Amino acid sequence: MIDEELQRLFHQASAKVVFLVDKNGQLIASAGETRDIDTTSLASLTAGNIAATGGIARLLGEKEFTILFHEGEKDNIHISLIGQRVILVVIFDKRSSLGLVRLRVKKASEALVRIFHEITSKADKEKSEGKLDESPFAEISDEDIDNLFK
Questions:
Q1: Dihedral of the alpha carbons of 125, 126, 129, 132, in degrees to the nearest 10
Q2: Cβ neighbours of residue 69 closer than 8 Å, sequence gap 6 or more
Q3: 48: helix, coil or strand?
Q4: pLDDT-derived band of residue 35, with 50, 70 and 90 as boundaries?
Q5: Distance (Å, whole) CA 89 – CA 17
Q6: What's the first-to-final CA gap in the chain, in angstroms?
Q7: pTM score, whole prediction
């Protein structure tokens, strides 16, 4: 569902690339022309950008800035925080406009919030019903680990 939403945003916003990144800088999903982009570095730097901007926001008495925009000679980047969980990144050029990107990002953000809520609800329900398996490492004790390395 996440991939479908990113593909939809990619096409509707006439973007070059769309990324979804967690706040720790890990790439979750992407759509578009990713061949020539170091996605790992982009994801990490985007999370750092959000963190740095969060510091600026707090200095100014704001909780957080949820939307960032950077304009370049050829490419532009629109970064938005979705549901305090993930970062949505849209890279676009002259084929699109900031207004179109902002409109499409708003709609995609609402859809992504619903998707994440659905995922969380399903996981909580399965956990409460005991359907989620316990970690395979749960029964390993510190003593077992010590014995292994003796």
A1: -150
A2: 76, 77, 78, 79, 98
A3: helix
A4: confident
A5: 8
A6: 47
A7: 0.80
SS3 97: coil
DSSP strand pairing (76-82 vs 86-92): antiparallel
What per-residue confidence (pLDDT) applies to 76?
96
By C-alpha distance, which of 60, 115, 105 is closest to 79?
A: 105
Contact 112, 82 (CB under 8 A): yes
Pick the closest to residue 34 from 17, 21, 11, 22 (CA basis). 17
Cα separation of 25 and 149, whole Å? 33
How many Cα atoms occupy the beta-carbon half-sphere of 70 within 13 Å?
13
Which CATH code, of 3.20.20.70, 3.80.10.10, 3.40.190.10, 3.30.450.30, is assigned to 2-129? 3.30.450.30
What are the structural domain ranges in the chain?
Answer: 2-129
Q: What are 78's two structure tokens?
A: 């629109």
Neighbours of 22 (CB within 10 A): 13
What is the distance, to the nearest Å, from the Cα of residue 34 to the centroid of all Cα atoms in its chain?
Answer: 16
